[in-house]
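User: Some background: our group keeps a shared notebook of sequences we're curious about, and every so often someone picks one and asks for a predicted structure to add to the entry. Today it's my turn. The entry only has the sequence so far, pasted here. Could you supply the structure so I can complete it?
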Amino acid sequence: MSRCCRRLNQLASQGRRTYSQAAVQLKRPSSSATPVYRRPQPSTHTRDAELPRSSASASYSFQQRRAARIEEEQDVAEQTPQSIHLRQLFGLRFSAELSRRILTHASHPAAAQGHNSALSFIGRRTLESYFLLMISSSPALTPSDDLEALSSHALNTYLLGQHVGRSWELGRVLRWVPAVISPTEIDTSREGRSIGLYKVQGDTVAAVLGGVFREFGASTAQRLFHTRIMPHVLSGLPERFHGDVTAACNRMGGLQGPLARTKKPLPVPDTGLIVTLPR
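Assistant: Of course. Here's the predicted structure to add to the notebook entry:
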């Protein structure tokens, strides 16, 4: 009886060891098992650098056209009679604020919001600088010539207003108020009124050049000086310098030449990156 009990206990013990070893072997990874390869899922966000060059170029051109259209819409929205006149005259995009300042004299009530005195100061110095550069390089210049006298005669404010200002038709859009005169002086003041207008227009011509210099740069202002101003003031300059004025005007594109150089389209970046604008 005791022998049978011992035999049963041995069999039970062997069963427990066999079960434990089998469980351990199931938990261990098999060294001969083949690893499972999982293909990586494609990302939902493709990098810009991975796009083909043709797609980058097309998207870049689209964004460029979109930016130009937005700029044009904004420009049309803020147009004023002053900015339209200056744009038609010179082919340059003057902002509404700048055009109002250029064409507002200090005598006008609206001068409290800004007038052209500061721009006229800048333009006067720009006029003198470009004039002296042209005259000093002329072969017609002699040691006895007085550069200051030549400059003051050719760039006289009344001469600029009478010839350049009238050619630009500044009187149509210029905001200014003539001096108050008594009723008895109305008939005899027409000549004085014209002289006053010439003075105001001459200051405005200088303000236009000052505004172009500040807004569009020195090269555009120089072309404006040689092609739109100097050909109209030859009467204030000795005849031996007229050839220099004509040569400079032709070199800068002529009387109707463009003042601003046309911008070439920007090249597509070599990296293939796409430039995106916020919507």
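Suggested note for the entry: The mean pLDDT is 78. The chain is about 55% helix and 0% strand.
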